[in-house]
Design goal:
five-stranded mixed β-sheet
Length: 112
Amino acid sequence: MSGITSHVLDLMTGKPAAGVEVVLEHIDDKKGWHAVARATTDADGRVRDGFTKLHGPGRYRLTFATGAYFAARNVDCFHPEVTVVFEVRDDRAHHHVPLLLSPFGYSTYRGS
């Protein structure tokens, strides 16, 4: 499978973060950053099929609407959004970008 997938885990509850809006962007020399796709995490905290069309190798970024996610749960947070920038060298390969999230911090890595 090619494309980009993601999942978000809420470390405060130890459960998947359902309902997080995620925007995928790509950068090019002419347009700068531009939105490629939008998705919302499912009940398992995952974006499975929303980011299947890539615009070739290059730099991409995922922006997670973490402030809105925590506000909907009446929880204060420090990061209103989390942006993860990464490089795609082989656009035929699968790229998985998980986000481990708490109200006052986050972590991410290249998943499988």
